[in-house]
Amino acid sequence: MAVNKQSNIKAILDTDLEKLLKKTKQYNSFVDGELKCIYCGTPITIDNLSIIIPEVRCKNVSLNFCCNNSVCLAKFREEHE
Ligand SMILES: [Zn+2]
To answer: What are all long-range contacts of 13-17, with beta carbons under 8 Å and residues at least 24 apart?
Structure first.
């Protein structure tokens, strides 16, 4: 699965999120509250998830997450402009 880092950044629906997380084998981590915002380290939930940032490592895609904290969103924007 080829993922373009820039164009795949988008908000997605919960059902799509579940599928994505299962595909990247991060679903259990998500359910266990082990996925964290890459900026502040807050555990990511459906309620505070704002941006999904796909990362390709050795052809495996894993997902990074940004929470809905305005400080984190500002950092994300700085990095992706
Ligand atoms: Zn954050």
So the answer is: 14/46, 17/46, 17/49, 17/52
